[in-house]
Design goal:
This protein is an alpha/beta fold. Keywords: Hydrolase, Phosphoprotein. It holds the Pfam family Response_reg.
Length: about 150
């Protein structure tokens, strides 16, 4: 777990949580490309995420479900007791409409975005980034980004 450089206070503070360094990078780069967000930290498991959530009090946490130490559902259960900000699930395990996604929503997740498994193509990466950004903006009550689709 690591906090990142101090962020501009006018931007919404985001925490990225995923055990995959590649997915953390995709989510970080996607959010950082939007002037509304500043990524202030990253974690590779739920326990580290909870520590950073308490320390950094992010406005938005992008959270994976399948992780070591403490999974995303366990993280959501603990966050729900005293958490701050919105949580968006980005997971291949909790596809939108699944029972796991419904549980995540009951525990307070603002949105669920499916993530692909396997290799990323540039086109898939762009589409996935758009879905992540749409969910992040909705969860933090921002309008769709200028020029963004649907």
């Amino acid at each position: 777990a690591r906090p990142t450089a101090a962020a501009d206070t006018t931007r919404l503070r985001a925490l990225v949580v995923d055990d995959s360094a590649m997915m953390r990078r995709l989510v970080r780069e996607t959010l950082s490309g939007d002037p509304a967000f500043a990524v202030v930290g990253e974690a590779g498991d739920g326990r580290a995420a909870l520590a950073l959530m308490a320390e950094l009090r992010p406005d938005l946490t992008m959270l994976d479900i399948e992780m070591p130490v403490l999974d995303g559902i366990g993280t959501l259960r603990e966050w729900a007791l005293s958490g701050h900000g919105a949580v968006v699930i980005v997971s291949s395990a909790a596809r939108p409409g699944s029972e796991l996604a419904a549980l995540a929503r009951r525990l307070g997740a603002s949105a669920v975005v499916g993530k692909p498994s396997g290799a990323f193509s540039p086109d898939l990466r762009d589409r996935q980034g758009e879905a992540i950004l749409r969910a992040a903006r909705r969860a933090t009550f921002l309008p769709a980004a200028a020029g963004a689709e649907g």
